[in-house]
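Q: What residues go here?
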């Protein structure tokens, strides 16, 4: 047992010794989300800490004093001990926070912001560092981006289908009704909204001799839809976790009980984040399949690599290679972190979740996925330009016009990396999704 006079020292020792994380820091935005979720968990009243602790976290947030928290060092049980300790270290006036030029010593930043460091009392050191808020916050931010990408994948797929002169028949509501997975029906409706009933391009090949489209066109409702269903399931899990008490022990004041428990174990979050990583990887693997068909003259009946003047120009050749690289990287990253475990803390903590590794992997998967979707849009937009004077209609035409203003038709080779970044900017600023909404209303997810 710890004597009363050593209680405060114990809190400081816990935070200092557990601040053993390494690697690059989480982004400032990620750390703000972590702080908010930790404050929310403590505010539920089962962690045995004073209101003052929650208020101090909020003061740091409101004055934009954000700790620098290393990404590596958590096994996801007892929660995210190492990264949350670095967060708590700033609250007691130690460690480093974000400044304009990078890292700033916390005491300097607190003095500038006129913030008094927190003096911890019994249990409060453990309360600050024992929880799953790091994996949950990073996962939620990735899930938000994944939702936008689910819409963008439908849009990119529709542009590719039009460019490849595919058929709309696979999106008939009768088909979705026979296999009532929600995401499948939603994706089919999205595709019909984006493509419209027909277009000049669609009318131009109505009597062609092709019987069926390739799977990457025909099966978008099945694959994109399954990704949407996974996303909704994961968000449901993360919303529960974001509003949970994940401390140990938990304090139940009304019942006069303090109970040791395992709520700090990150397995529910770890499973969910691995699931979403798999779903996003599969969704953009299909996107890369469509890119390959766009640049392949045997499949697209367009100039090789979408270059108007081949030989002299390489066109979109290496755009497809880059997409293939990202898709293959995602296949490696999609290996579940949660299937791994390793005993820690003298074998007392003998099973762990690796949930924070799952969160970090998911963040990379989503960033890679965004690049692949942007690459598909770049290639599909170039293909639509090659089909002129025959044009698409509806949303595809509207988006084609928006893209042409930013990434105009490539008559000859240029640095396509810049085009990819510009399309990502249009995705992140919601310019493209707003174009869809202004034309046909909201898409479903």
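A:
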């Amino acid at each position: 047992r710890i004597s009363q006079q050593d209680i405060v020292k114990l809190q400081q020792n816990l935070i200092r010794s557990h601040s053993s994380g390494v690697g690059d820091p989480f982004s400032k935005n990620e750390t703000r989300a972590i702080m908010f979720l930790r404050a929310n968990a403590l505010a539920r009243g089962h962690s045995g800490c004073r209101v003052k602790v929650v208020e101090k976290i909020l003061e740091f947030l409101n004055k934009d004093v954000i700790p620098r928290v290393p990404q590596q060092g958590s096994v996801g049980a007892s929660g995210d001990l190492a990264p949350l300790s670095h967060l708590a270290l700033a609250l007691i006036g130690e460690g480093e926070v974000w400044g304009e030029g990078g890292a700033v010593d916390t005491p300097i930043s607190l003095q500038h912001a006129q913030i008094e460091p927190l003096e911890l009392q019994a249990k409060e050191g453990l309360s600050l560092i024992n929880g799953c808020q790091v994996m949950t916050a990073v996962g939620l931010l990735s899930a938000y981006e994944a939702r936008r990408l689910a819409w963008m994948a439908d849009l990119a797929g529709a542009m590719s289908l039009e460019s490849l002169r595919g058929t709309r028949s696979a999106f008939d509501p009768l088909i979705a009704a026979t296999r009532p997975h929600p995401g499948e029906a939603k994706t089919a409706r999205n595709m019909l909204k984006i493509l419209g009933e027909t277009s000049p391009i669609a009318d131009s090949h109505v009597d062609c001799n092709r019987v069926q489209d390739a799977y990457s066109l025909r099966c978008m409702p099945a694959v994109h839809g399954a990704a949407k269903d996974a996303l909704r399931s994961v968000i449901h899990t993360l919303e529960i976790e974001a509003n949970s008490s994940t401390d140990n022990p938990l304090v139940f004041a009304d019942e006069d009980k303090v109970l040791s428990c395992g709520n700090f174990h990150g397995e529910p979050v770890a499973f969910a984040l691995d699931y979403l990583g798999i779903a996003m990887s599969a969704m953009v693997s299909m996107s890369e399949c469509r890119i390959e068909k766009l640049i392949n003259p045997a499949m697209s009946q367009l100039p090789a690599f979408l270059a108007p003047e081949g030989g002299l120009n390489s066109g979109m050749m290496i755009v497809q290679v880059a997409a293939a690289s990202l898709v293959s990287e995602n296949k490696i990253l999609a290996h579940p972190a949660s299937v791994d475990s390793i005993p820690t803390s003298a074998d007392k903590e003998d099973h762990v979740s690796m949930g924070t590794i799952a969160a970090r992997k998911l963040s990379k998967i989503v960033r890679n996925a965004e690049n692949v979707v942007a690459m598909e849009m770049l290639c599909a937009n170039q293909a639509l330009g090659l089909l002129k004077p025959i044009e698409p209609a509806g949303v595809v035409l509207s988006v084609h016009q928006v893209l042409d203003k930013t990434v105009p038709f490539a008559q000859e080779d240029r640095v396509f990396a810049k085009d990819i970044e510009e399309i990502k900017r249009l995705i992140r600023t919601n310019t493209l999704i707003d174009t869809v909404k202004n034309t046909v209303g909201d898409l479903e997810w």
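A: Context that may help when evaluating the design: The chain has two domains: 4-131, 136-440. The mean pLDDT is 96.
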